[in-house]
Amino acid sequence: MIICKLADETQRIVKESTKDGQKSGFIPTMGALHDGHISLIQKSIQAGNFTSCSIFVNPTQFNNPADFAKYPSTLSSDIDKLEEAGCDLLFLPSQNEIYPPDFKPPHYKLGYLESVFEGKYRPGHFQGVCMVVDRLLKIMQPTLLYLGQKDYQQCMVISKMVSDLGIKTEIAICPTLRENSGLAMSSRNMRLTADQKTKAPLISTELLRLKKNIREGNVDSILEESIKTLDKAGFKVDYFSVANAANLQPVTNWDGQSKIVGLAAAFLGEIRLIDNMLLN
Ligand code: PAF
């Protein structure tokens, strides 16, 4: 695997490696790689792409400085995992390479998507995500961008940005990988204590219960029950909601037909966990 820290050099290598028409696949990450990330790398390799991954802990998407400071970093094991998976290139930029001194932060028109769920609880987060992904896509110019469904709203935000800016990259959204306990894989899980790790799967248990029990009509009581259960177990719930899967408008009275998604975010101690499940 080629490891490259410079944007120009990385772009040159991707162009050179795909000059005979091979497609390129790109997986942006913030490191602390787990099997969920590796499954995206594998999807890209299986599709025959020249496959690149980036590791960059993007400061502009952290609304909480402590979360940024404590974001796990496991670079040497990340490199081993990428090598083993057969990744072709790792882009490992410095802050200066992504945000040079003359970088002018653009503003992205995300509209409603930025005002709900993660947008509401993490002000500025999606502007930061768009800023870095836009920059990375300009460098990598991939045929395909692989994203995990675990960050459901992020997938929608990035899809909107790519479409609004006319970026010629196709987006492949891949299923969330889970621990045997049901806990959605996430780099932040590394920061859970042993006790918290036994509690954390309750979010996915409650989403599964929602999926099993949701019926046409008012959905409030079933959501309230889950929130109560999570509260009792020691979570501080930001939201546990049902929304239209296509536009994230909240659903309180389900027509029994439209595609819906269950979305959850809750703190366990100082670790904020998110998860989601398509419900029908
Ligand atoms: O999902 C993530 O890890 C990040 O938000 C991303 C897409 C790599 C941008 O920093």
Tell me the quaternary state.
Answer: single chain
Class based on secondary structure composition and strand pairing: alpha/beta
Ends apart, CA distance between termini: 41 Å
* SSE pattern: EHEHEHHEHHHEHEHHEHEEEE
CATH class of the largest domain: Alpha Beta
Name the overall outline.
globular
- pLDDT below 50 for ≥5 consecutive residues: which ranges? none
The total beta strand count reads 11
Major β-sheet, in short?
6 strands, parallel
Total number of helical segments? 11
**Reported CATH architecture of the largest domain:** 3-Layer(aba) Sandwich
CATH topology of the largest domain: Rossmann fold
Bound molecules: pantoate
Query: Can you tell me the number of structural domains?
Result: 2
Question: Brief description of this entry?
Answer:
The chain is of the alpha/beta class. It has helices at residues 7-17, 35-46, 65-69, 75-85, 95-98, 118-121, 125-140, 152-164, 194-199, 202-213, 220-232; strands at residues 2-4, 24-29, 50-55, 89-91, 144-148, 170-174, 217-218, 236-244, 253-254, 260-268, 271-278. It has two domains: 2-174, Rossmann fold; 187-278, Pantoate--beta-alanine Ligase, Chain: A,domain 2, CATH 3.30.1300.10.
Describe the structure.
This protein has 280 residues and is α/β, with parallel strands linked by helices. It folds into 2 domains: 2-174, HUPs (Rossmann fold, 3-Layer(aba) Sandwich), CATH 3.40.50; 187-278, Pantoate-beta-alanine ligase, C-terminal domain (Pantoate--beta-alanine Ligase, Chain: A,domain 2), CATH 3.30.1300.10. The chain contains 11 helices and 11 strands. It has helices spanning 7-17, 35-46, 65-69, 75-85, 95-98, 118-121, 125-140, 152-164, 194-199, 202-213, 220-232; strands at 2-4, 24-29, 50-55, 89-91, 144-148, 170-174, 217-218, 236-244, 253-254, 260-268, 271-278. Strands 1-4-3-2-5-6 form a 6-stranded parallel beta sheet, sandwiched between helices. Strands 8-10-11 form a 3-stranded antiparallel beta sheet, with helices on one face. The protein has a two-stranded antiparallel sheet with strand order 7-9. A hairpin with a 2-residue loop joins strand 10 (260-268) and strand 11. Helix 7 (125-140) crosses helix 8 (152-164) and helix 10 (202-213) runs antiparallel to helix 11 (220-232). The longest helix is centred in the middle third of the chain and has 16 residues, at 125-140. The radius of gyration is 19 Å and the shape is globular. The N and C termini lie far apart (41 Å). 35% of the residues are buried. The mean pLDDT is 98. Bound molecules: pantoate.
